[in-house]
Amino acid sequence: MAPGRWYRISGDHPDLRLQATPPGTRYLEDNDPAKDVKLNPARNPKELLRRSLGRRPHSPWHGTMGFAAITEAWNGAAFASGFGASGAMIHFGGGHNDYFGSDVHAFDLGTRQWSRISDGYIAGAPDEYGAGAVYPDAVYPDGSPLPPHTYGYVQYDPVSNDYLLFKGQIELGPDVTAVPIPHLFNLDSLTWRRGPRHPAAILASGGFTTWDATRRILWGHSGDSGNAFIGFRPDGDNGDGTFGSWGTLYPKKIRSANHNAMQIDPVRDVIVVVVSARNGLYAIDPSTPDRDAAPLASRGDRPVIAAYAAIEYAPNLDRFVYFSAGDGAHLYSIAAPIGSAWPRLTTAAWTWESILDARNGLDPIADAQAISAHAVQRAHTFGRFRIASYGETDVAILVRHTDTPVYAMRLHSRKTHRP
């Protein structure tokens, strides 16, 4: 894998002379629980006819879009370094009226195989999903959460091996009801648990998070319809069926903040936010969370910052990596100014640099759109772009649609020259 170039690493015809994985593991949609006749038997003559004609099966939890919504309906993902020998991309979500399934899926980077690691709530009657089906604790009867649009609200805790979901829904359908109830999916036991409901936070559409491993806090910033910058600590059994605790509620720090992304730099202890409405970077100080967000100066080869994009920290590069589907194949590194003190970080310029090799021959955005049989959300990335680190090498991982390959790019293994 040459640095700076995209490759297909799964599907029917992966690159790098890789063999196709066994049928049933090549694509995310191979493990759609609606296709499993044991989980979703045909319940009426109309459904029997659908299936006899070779059409996609319906299920009580189908929603208006069905399983394709797990990528196309405003949903992200998280990279779990502790699941499988080489880590895995973990996928969950639906939201609104699009998909009501609470199944969880993993793409194992070692085997390059997709699998369904939790069936979700598949025992309900049609009236137990969607509008009118209200669950005050934001969980189905089996304990799995009602699937919201996950946006940038999902992260991973490597110590507890937990997939973390920052918010919940007590009802899905045309008019959803979001609630500040976090959820944790343990990747060892493959079971869900939930946090307590915050009494005042509003965590609705378009928000974003980052995992602060030093403090063990999941920091979250609500989108435009919310009111909060707040942290959730996942540790501790509260003795009432909930786990973890909320920190202090601060007013949201950035206006016009829908569908952005933020990431913590663990070396300099600063959270950097990419803000599309202002076409700029902002910094949040996790050591002083009541401090106002500070705009950051940029220099170098910087694109227009887009909504639905992703920002990750690459430890071997010691830089952030920014990716937007609107830029096609391009990736950009963002280098901090020399020094780690807040005044220096917020007054000196951060340097952008394209890290796409000139010899790259694959645009994963266009490639996936040409392959997919679904109506795709081309602009959406959210957390479906992540960085996996192996020794001295960082690898960018990108999941696009339920019926397309997973893409990967090896980043430069040595730390590049710093400005």
Summarize the structure.
Helix content is 6%, strand content 31%. By secondary structure, it is mainly beta.
How would you portray this structure in words?
- With 419 residues, the protein is mainly beta.
- It has helices at 45-52, 69-72, 342-347, 364-371; strands spanning 6-8, 78-80, 88-91, 104-108, 113-118, 154-157, 162-165, 168-171, 177-179, 183-186, 191-194, 208-212, 217-221, 229-237, 243-246, 261-265, 270-275, 280-284, 294-300, 310-314, 319-323, 332-335, 349-354, 385-390, 393-399, 406-410.
- It is built from four helices and 26 strands.
- The strands form six sheets. Strands 16-17-18-19-23-22-21-20 form an eight-stranded mixed beta sheet. It has a four-stranded antiparallel beta sheet with strand order 1-26-25-24, with no helix packed on it.
- The radius of gyration is 21 Å and the shape is globular.
- The model has no long low-confidence stretch (mean pLDDT 96).
Q: Which topology does CATH recognise?
A: Neuraminidase
CATH H-level superfamily title: TolB, C-terminal domain
Uncertain ranges: none
Q: Choose one word for the global shape.
A: globular
Please identify the oligomeric state: single chain
Q: Radius of gyration in whole Å, from Cα?
A: 21 Å
For the record, the count of structural domains works out to: 1
Q: Decide which structural class fits the backbone.
A: mainly beta
Give the helices and strands as they follow along the chain.
EHHEEEEEEEEEEEEEEEEEEEEEHEHEEE
Record field, number of beta strands? 26
Averaged pLDDT:
96
